[in-house]
Amino acid sequence: MLPGAGGAHTCCRSQAHTCYRRLSQALSGVMLLPRFLLTALMLWLLDYPCIRRRLLRPPAAARSPEDPPLCVSDGNRLCTVESLKAVWYGQKLDWLKSAHVGGVAPNTEVVTLEGPKRCRILDFSDGHRPLVVNFGSCS
């Protein structure tokens, strides 16, 4: 091996990792785009007062004379840049999470109460008995 060749190999590996990471981010963005556009369309449609009134108005049988009149204004918009950013961020988190309904549970690292010993969640499972994890608070 030539002197200094290890540094070039490490550089190529780093560039390949960066390229892979960017490609996976672009692919996940393409996969999320239809869901995001559908949500943005729904928020945009809900910004129209006539649609909001129709969706929010209770049926005539459920209305009582004591109820105040329904007031739908243009002051509280749903389709804003901030709401679209929040929708994109939430859908991205949902897409990239490691646990999915019906899938295999992730075997994450936990700290025991007895001390700073680290172990995995599935180390506490016992045969075919279900493992219950309680994320409660004692404060």
UniProtKB/TrEMBL annotation:
One of the record's GO molecular function terms: thyroxine 5'-deiodinase activity
Keywords tagged on the record: Oxidoreductase, Selenocysteine, Thyroid hormones biosynthesis
Keyword Oxidoreductase attached: yes
A Gene Ontology biological process term: hormone biosynthetic process
The family this protein is said to belong to: Belongs to the iodothyronine deiodinase family.
Record function comment: Responsible for the deiodination of T4 (3,5,3',5'-tetraiodothyronine).
Protein's name in the database: Iodothyronine deiodinase
Underlying gene: Dio3
